[in-house]
Write a structure and sequence with these properties.
seven-stranded parallel sheet; 13 strands; single chain; Rossmann fold; alpha/beta
Length: 376
Amino acid sequence: MQIEKTKVVIASTLKPVDDTRMFEKFGVSLADTNKYEVFILGFPSRAPVACEGVTFLSLAPFRRLSLSRFSAAWKIFRMTLAIKPEILIFCTHELLLPAVLYKLILRKKILYDIRENYFRNVLFIPSFHFFLRPLLAVYIRTKEILLSPWVDHFILAEKGYEQELNFVKNKKTVLENKLKKPVSFESKKSIQDGLIHLLFSGTLAETTGVFEAIELSKKLHAAEPRIRLTIIGYCAQHRTLKKIRSILQQTDFIDLKGGDFLVPHHQILKEIQQADAGIISYPPNPSTRNSIPTKLFEYLGNSLPIFLVDHPAWTAYCNPYPACIPVDFKNIQVHEILSRFNTENFYRTRPTDIFWESEGLKLVRLLDQRLPIRKI
C-alpha cells in the first residue's frame, strides 16, 4: 500500500537553506522517514546542496539591515502558498504573521521553532541603536503573545526557554541543538605540525566572546609560542569585523576564515576535528543565561577539549567526561591553564546525551501525532 507523502515547509528569512538546524537536523530527520516531502526556504547557500526528499528554494540575496529583509518574509509567504504544505515550520519571529495568515487561509498547521529568545536578544545585544532596542523588543514580544493562540505548537531550542517564554503555555516541545552523531569518536585530527591549534567557531560578535578568545590566545601564545588560533564563522556587524581584522593585522598566529560570509557547517566541523582545543568565551549576558551554545555540543561530540567560560551550568555539563578547563576571562591564569591542558586526561568517559538523533525522533513523533499520514 502506497503512502502519500505529507508536504512540510521549513522556513527562515536569514538562515541559509543548508542551515544546520533547518536542513541537517529537521529536514533530514523528516525526509529519512519517507513519509514527509520537505521544502526548505531561506537565504541562499554559498555551496551547492542536494538531498533526497528535500527541495531547497532560495530567496534572492539581501543585506541583513535592509528593506529587502522585510519583503523576504512575504516572499516566503507567497512561496508557501504555492507549495501548500500541510505543516509549516517557521524559524524566526519575522515569519509569525505570514504563518498565521497562511493558517487562516488554508487551514493548515503551523509550528514556531523558537531558536532564540528574540526579546532578550534585541534588548541586550547591540545589533540595533540603543534607543531602538526596547521598542523592537516590545514589538516582537507583543507580536508573539498576541499571535500565539493561532500557533499549533512551539518547538524550543533551549530547555531554559520553558521558563522564559510564558506565552508557549503547554503547546511546547524542547528540541535542543544537539550534534548529529559522528561516524567515530576517534580523533580525526590531521594537522601534525607540532603546533597547538585553538579554535573559536560560530557567530563572531562581542556578545559571543570573540575578543575574549583572541585575548586568551594572545596571552597563551606569549607563554607558549606553539599556540595558534583559528576563528571561523560569520560576523553580521561591519564594525566588529573591522576590529577583528585590525587585531589580526598585528598578529601572525591568528587566522580568520569567513567573517563577511556564512561558512558552510561542514567546513566548521572539519576545523573542529582538526583542532587541539576549542574556546567558548561568552561574556555574561541575559540573552544567553539559560542557553547552551550549539558549539558546546559540537566540541563534546568531537571529543575536543574546551577552554570554557566559568558558567556553572556549562561546566557542569562537561565535568562528567571531563571535557573542559574553566577560565575566568577577566583574570586569565595562563600557566595554570597550560599546565592543566598538558596534564589533564580529557574524555575519560565518552559523552552520551549530546546527540541529535534522540531529538530527531521526538520531532518525527510530534509531527506524526499532530498530523496522521494518509494512506491511499
